[in-house]
Design goal:
With 173 residues, the chain is mainly α. It has 2 domains: 1-40; 44-172, Orthogonal Bundle (Arc Repressor Mutant, subunit A). Helix content is 55%, strand content 10%. It contains 5 helices and 3 strands. A 3-stranded antiparallel beta sheet has the order 1-3-2. The chain starts with a helix and ends with a strand.
């Protein structure tokens, strides 16, 4: 009788484990379906704009600093106060200093600058996948940032979220 109970408990445990595994697989597949839906509206031009923004705003920052800049761009795109595409967010009038500084909007030609451009492209792709999968952002809902050596007029209207390298990130009050 005891052996029968042990076998029954073992079978029940296996059934529960199988159910948990099936549930996890279905959840992952559902998450991937949702991710594909979110990415469906992201164009190759949007990915290029995100790469440009990472490169020109944060190529001198750590990888985390570059990721944070990418997330600000995506957070803005999904925020009601900003345009609804990556390129429109990046090129919105005077939102990112590099878009109106009068300098070339093409990456430099040196090996170091070319490597920074490639890195920015990789960061753009990884962050886009994380965003599409609704992964938590390392900067929460931050939609603004600035270098720590400037004091912008708007900073008092936002809540500081995190400092990464020499950028301070903010979300709306």
């Amino acid at each position: 009788m005891r052996l029968k109970n042990i076998i029954g408990m073992f079978a029940l445990s296996i059934n529960v484990m199988v159910l948990i595994i099936i549930t996890a697989v279905v959840a992952l597949q559902w998450n991937e379906v949702q991710a594909k839906q979110r990415l469906k509206h992201v164009t190759a031009e949007d990915i290029f704009c995100l790469q440009q923004n990472i490169y020109f705003e944060a190529r001198n920052q750590s990888m985390l600093g570059q990721v944070a800049v990418a997330w600000v761009t995506l957070n803005r795109m999904t925020h009601g106060s900003y345009p609804n595409s990556i390129c429109k967010v990046v090129w919105q009038n005077k939102q990112f200093s590099w878009t109106h500084d009068g300098k070339s909007d093409k990456p430099g030609k040196t090996k170091l600058e070319q490597r920074a451009w490639e890195d920015a492209g990789l960061v753009a792709q990884v962050v886009l996948l994380d965003w599409a999968r609704a992964t938590n952002s390392p900067i929460e809902e931050a939609i603004m940032y600035h270098a720590d050596y400037v004091d912008p007029y708007w900073a008092d209207h936002y809540v500081e979220v995190i400092v990464i390298d020499n950028h301070i990130f903010y979300e709306k009050l």
